[in-house]
Design a protein that fits this description.
Helix 1 packs parallel to helix 2 (44-59) and helix 6 (176-183) crosses helix 8. The protein starts with 5 loop residues before the first strand and ends with a helix. The protein has a domain at 1-100: Spore Coat Polysaccharide Biosynthesis Protein SpsA, Chain A, CATH 3.90.550. The protein is globular and about 70 Å long. It is 40% helix and 17% strand. With 308 residues, the chain is an alpha/beta fold. This is Glycosyltransferase. It comes from Candidatus Planktophila lacus. InterPro entries: Nucleotide-diphossugar_trans.
């Protein structure tokens, strides 16, 4: 199957971008889009790094059908990504979105392409993701099954123009009563509190994030996300020049690109993995059930009383 169109998102990390483009260079029949966000104002080093990324993007025209989008100034995380994806879907009906700090094997591209085809007419699916929080990236020719979960990942994903068109940008048509009624399905009352706080920060422009808007879009429409039984992608961008991943968090899975030896069998299913959702709510979004919080508080007070 011909690979789905691919959008590559870059900014000021030419080493990562070069690695990604060198890998994609071996993909046949590739239709490539590359967006490079602009430099921060009055930052010579940023200007230099962005120009290096632009050079790499221009060079890709020698080996792939490529379209380029360069910004003259820095748009930040939300506008930088949304403008790029808007541009991408102005030209394509579906496609794959890859950030520059990802490492994967060809299976990821194949999986995302097949997923786009498999679920194109299922309007209950918002995205296909090649990353799984529960399974590190490993190389295997064993069949890859899928689960449906509630939360999208920004580490190697794919979607369709009509889904992206519903991205929650300013919440003007999303009333608070409706928002609460949708949000309570994702973590109960404790979840509502978390999602309300995130929405408020987005509305007040205190949180520069496209990914949370995409997540809240999924909760609004009740969309599910298709994820593989094992991760096909690893994020290696945990260093100081990252936008959101500045810690020294251990990298899960491989740390270099692997060319596909054989294509594993994909077993697409409609199985909803509630354990996966519970894991993300607790460990990624910090949503702890109200009852559990109350019990912990009572135990804390009781233990203090004993010490007295």
């Amino acid at each position: 199957m011909k690979p789905a169109p691919i959008l590559v998102l870059g900014y000021n990390r030419p080493d990562y971008l070069k690695n990604l483009l060198e890998f994609l260079k071996d993909q046949k029949n590739l239709r490539l889009y590359i967006s490079i966000d602009g430099p921060v104002l009055n930052n010579p080093r940023d200007e230099f790094l962005v120009k290096e990324c632009q050079k790499l993007a221009i060079e890709s025209k020698e080996w792939a059908e490529t379209k380029l989008l360069f910004s003259g100034s820095n748009n930040g995380c939300y506008l930088g990504v949304t403008k790029a994806v808007d541009w991408f879907f102005a030209n394509e009906e579906f496609g794959i979105i890859l950030e520059d700090d990802l490492v994967f094997d060809s299976t990821a591209i194949t999986f995302l392409t097949h997923g786009l085809s498999q679920f194109s007419k299922n309007v209950e699916i918002g995205a296909i993701c090649a990353f799984s929080h529960l399974s590190p990236h490993s190389i295997s020719d064993a069949p890859i099954s899928t689960q449906m979960v509630s939360f999208p990942s920004s580490w190697g994903w794919a979607t369709w123009r009509d889904r992206w068109a519903k991205l929650e940008r300013d919440f003007s048509s999303y009333s608070y009563p409706l928002f609460i009624s949708r949000s309570i399905k994702y973590g109960g009352l404790s979840g509502v509190r978390t999602w309300l706080q995130i929405r408020k920060r987005l509305e007040d422009e205190k949180l520069d994030s496209w990914a949370y808007r995409w997540l809240l879009t999924h909760s609004r429409y009740g969309w599910k996300v298709v994820v593989p039984s094992r991760s096909l992608i690893t994020n290696i961008g945990f260093r100081q020049d990252a936008t959101h991943t500045k810690n020294n968090k251990p990298i899960l899975g491989i740390q270099s690109f692997i060319k596909e030896v054989s294509t594993p069998k994909f077993i697409f299913s409609n199985h909803i993995d509630q354990d996966y959702d519970r894991f993300l709510l607790r460990n990624i979004y910090g949503v702890i059930p109200i009852g559990e919080k109350i019990i912990a508080k009572i135990k804390s007070v009781f233990n203090k009383g004993i010490k007295i």
